[in-house]
Each structure stands twice: as C-alpha cells, then as structure tokens.
Specification:
13 strands; about 525 residues; alpha+beta; five-stranded mixed β-sheet; six-stranded antiparallel beta barrel
Length: about 525
C-alpha cells in the first residue's frame, strides 16, 4: 500500500495503517531525534512521544503526501522539549547497591560506554546540516531517496551531505559510528508496541494490541491524553484474549476518546497497588455481586482448607494475598483448573510479590507458560494480577482487602512448615463465615479448627492446652495439606478432590479424637479420611 493510502486510512482511525506507518518511519524518526538530543534513551522517548502526538493530530494533516515532513516537525518539537527539561539526577552512593550484578565485566562496560560516547560526540560535532542526514543513513541504512523525502531536500543534496560527513568522520571513526548506531538503533518491534484505547470505566482501561505482541502482565502502558497534553500511566492486570488488555490507571483519567494511542513501555510496575485503589477497582473489574446485599452461595472447590476455613462465594471475588515463595500462582492456577468448567463465575485478584532483581527480559506471562499454567482467565474464572508490597502481610495490610468476599493469605511461615497450600488460617477470611451464611455446624467446625491451629504457633497456648490437643492440631494441620492437580509434575502425587461434606467430617473427627490411633504423619498431604485410612 502506498504512503498516501496508509495516511488516509490512519486518519480515519485505522490502527493497522498507523502501525504500518510507524514501521515505515520509526528509524527515520529515531535518527532525527538522535541527531538532536545526542542520547539513545532520550531519543527513544522522543520517538514514542512523537508517534503518540502524531496519531492524535493526524486528522489535522491536510495533505497525506506531506506526512514525512510533518512527522519530522513533530519529532523536532518533542526533541526540543526534551532538551529544555534535561537535568542531571543526583543519587546517593547507596543507590549503587541496586545495580544488577548479572552484567558483563566492568571493563567491558566501560569500553563500550567510551566507544558510544565517542561515536555520539563525533556525530554531534558535525555541522547541523550534515548531522541529521548522517545519523539517518548510519542508523538503519536509509536510502538517499528516503532520507531526501523525510528531510524535504533533493537526493543530490543528501549525497553531498553524506560525502561531506564521511570526510569529517575519518575512516576509523566512521566504522565506530556505524557499529555503534546499529547496536543502539530502535528495536524493530517498536511499531507493535502501539495499541489503541477501546474503553475507560473509572480507573479501568481496555486497549487493543496486536495479539502477537501483547504487553506483559503487570507492565505499564502510556495512554495519550491529548486534551491535557499528557500521558496517563496504566498497569496491565489482565489479558482476556483477542488482543485485548485490561489495566488500572495510576493517576485519574478524564474522558479520553476511543481510539486514542496506547504505548507499551516494556517496563514492569514497581509500585504496589494501594488499598484505596484496590477497593475502587474490584467492582469495576469483577462487576457487581450476583445478589447485592444477599448472603451468597458457597462455591465448592474440593480444596479442604479453602472450603472449610475460607469458603468461596459463587459469583464473588477472591483476593489471593501471597508472600513471595508461598505458592501464589500455584493456588491461582489450581482454582482455575477446578472452577473454570463450572456454571458459577468467580473473580480472582492475585496480589504478587516479586524479587528485587529479575532477569533482563523477564515476562510474567512467559513464566506462567513455562510452568504449564494459564493466565487465570478461563471459562467461568477471570483473574486479575496486581503488584503487592513486599514483606509479610500484616493484619493492617490485609484489612485493605475487605472489598473482596474472600481473602486467602498465603504465608511463607506456613510454607516453612511444609504445609501446602500455605494458607495462614489466622488471617484468611470469608464473608460466608463472617455473616453466618453457612450452616451452624460448618461455622462451629471452622472456629474449632482455627483455635486448634493457633496452638501450633503460640507456645503459651500450646502449653496450656496440653500435648493431646497439640497432637490433634498437628494432625488437622497435616490434613489441610493436599495434593494439587497443577502441581503433579513437581510432587509426583495425583491431585486430590475432597468434598465439603468429607472435609468437614474429617476436621470434626480429628478434633474429637476419633483418629487418635493414627500417627500425625498419616494425615499429611493426603485426601479424605477414608483415603487416609485406606493408605
């Protein structure tokens, strides 16, 4: 398709046409920006801002054939803005501790840095008339004719400027400049990082991207708010399919028109979601509860500790508050596999803690795929991912999740005791238990179980209760350890489904002493009492 056709289609809101334009002109824009700002990272920022502005301003372009020069003027405008706000950032010496250790040797880094600085300095010292043409040529082997179109000059003039530039860049420096600019050029997938806005609902944003180039979960997007001359940061929380991504805004967003540009920054969110934002977005993402103000119906999972101690609400919401290393995504995936084929919907809010250092190019979606896991949105189950604050989930922090019907707290303390799933029974909760919406027998057993498990974590309580009570509590804790279907490749044990009826009966019988004849080890990582007895 020729240039004028692409421009006309893009002007009418055709995102694919605009992506094609971006692919065609991204290296021209980058070369022009680099010639002006003299820094690779700042040049890439200029190009991003320029394409966002170009998409918003396309309807004002009267002559499609003028697109190259028009885009160049936008690039120059944004480059000037970057140069005006340039400043040096002062950091404390302690910040050096945050530098990743998995880097090339320091002397190699220093050599490459010196070479880059020398190449940029050589380009910058060229006369203005030569600098831009030379940069465009060396960045991506742009043809003389293409450079002429972009700069609005004749091909003969381009040829003369390049000849003069080569003369000033002596042979050795010419090779260094060429290699350096190629090494740092704009990634070829830059155009695929551009999507379009589909809808905004309060702080929730939906955008459409190329399905083959989706932003990763928990990455940040920039939505062009042209009316306010700014970009609104959005964090990806779900990828439901079809190229659609859902995100939550970091700052308030006004009415932004459908079709506005959305740019994938390739950066993961580092700031955790705050309780106030979480409270607001739960209903926006999950929708209103099926029976507003109603007691709710228990959704059975076949997972003993969840069904007894923090039962799920059919059509409701679940906050999985996991500490790093406590199996957050394992519990998420197991719930998806057990509930996705059901008729009752459920929304999972997975709050993840990340290690301080991640491998370059880390992708949460890829990591889930490597484990054989889904992204949590399958059938009747939809999952949303949030970055959680590091460290233990205290009672105060968990209190900020009260909007969810159920809170499942996965604790590293329980993981160290080798009880899987690592549910902390003292802090996990369910609206069904709190509102007495379940049978009195269930509520009674759950409370007895909670008091019994507390003995294992408090030496004073344990001493007062006596060794028999502690022994029964240990058996109950082991009984709550259960093989998962999604973990079979690691445990070598087939997944186990235990009905709510059998789980309640097992808890009651253990606490009543009906199985005092069995050792505590017999209850560990098994299924129902019948299965335990049989084995």
């Amino acid at each position: 398709m020729d240039l004028e056709q692409l421009v006309r289609r893009a002007t009418q809101g055709d995102v694919k046409a605009f992506v094609a334009l971006t692919q065609r002109f991204q290296h021209f824009a980058f070369g022009s920006a680099l010639a002006l700002v003299g820094d690779f990272h700042r040049a890439e920022d200029v190009v991003q801002e320029a394409f966002v502005a170009a998409w918003a301003a396309l309807p004002s372009l009267a002559e499609p054939a003028a697109f190259p020069g028009w885009l160049r003027s936008i690039v120059r405008h944004h480059a000037s803005r970057v140069l005006r706000r340039t400043h040096l950032e002062l950091l404390p010496l302690a910040a050096a501790e945050q530098v990743a250790s998995d880097q090339p040797p320091a002397d190699d880094i220093l050599d490459r840095r010196h070479q880059t600085e020398a190449a940029l300095s050589a380009i910058t010292e060229l006369p203005p008339a030569l600098r831009e043409a030379a940069t465009l040529f060396f960045v991506h082997d742009c043809s003389h004719q293409d450079i002429a179109i972009f700069l609005g000059i004749s091909a003969a003039t381009v040829n003369n400027r390049l000849h003069a530039a080569r003369t000033k860049l002596k042979e050795r420096m010419l090779t260094m400049v060429t290699n350096t600019l190629h090494e740092h050029r704009l990634p070829d997938d830059f155009a695929n990082r551009i999507g379009r806005l589909l809808e905004t609902r309060g702080e929730v944003v939906e955008a459409l991207f190329n399905p083959q180039s989706l932003p990763d979960l928990l990455t940040e997007l920039a939505v062009s708010d042209e009316a306010n001359k700014r970009a609104v940061t959005v964090r990806v929380v779900q990828r439901p399919g079809g190229g659609i991504v859902r995100g939550v805004t970091v700052s308030p967003i006004d009415v932004v028109p459908r079709g506005a540009t959305v740019l994938n920054s390739l950066r993961h969110a580092e700031t955790p979601i705050d309780p106030a934002t979480f409270e607001r977005v739960v209903t926006l993402l999950a929708g209103p509860p099926p029976k507003a103000g109603g007691a709710g119906k228990l959704l059975e999972t076949g997972i003993k500790v969840i069904d007894v101690m923090c039962p799920l609400v059919a059509g409701g919401t679940v906050a999985i508050a996991g500490e790093f290393g406590a199996g957050t995504t394992v519990v998420m995936e197991e719930l998806v596999r057990r509930l996705s084929d059901g008729a009752e919907g459920i929304s999972l809010f997975t709050l993840m803690q990340w290690p301080a250092a991640r491998e370059p190019g880390f992708s949460l979606a890829d990591e889930l795929k490597k484990e054989g896991f889904s992204e949590g949105t399958v059938g009747a189950v939809q999952t949303f991912f949030f970055r959680a604050e590091d460290g233990p989930w205290t009672e105060d922090r968990l209190a900020g999740l009260t909007t969810a019907d159920v809170v499942i707290h996965l604790s590293i303390k329980v993981a160290k005791a080798k009880i899987y799933p690592c549910v902390n029974l003292q802090n996990s909760r369910s609206r069904l238990l709190e509102s007495k919406a379940i049978s009195g027998e269930h509520a009674s057993i759950a409370e007895r179980a909670r008091q019994a498990i507390a003995l294992l974590w408090d030496e004073g309580l344990a001493a007062a209760a006596g060794p028999l009570a502690v022994e029964r509590a240990t058996k109950l804790s082991n009984f709550f350890a259960q093989p998962f279907f999604c973990a079979e490749p690691w445990t070598g044990r087939p997944g186990s489904y235990v009905s709510l009826k059998d789980a309640l009966q097992g808890c009651a019988e253990i606490l009543d002493g009906l199985h005092d004849d069995l050792p505590a080890e017999a209850f560990y990582f098994n299924g129902s009492i019948a299965e335990i007895r049989a084995s």
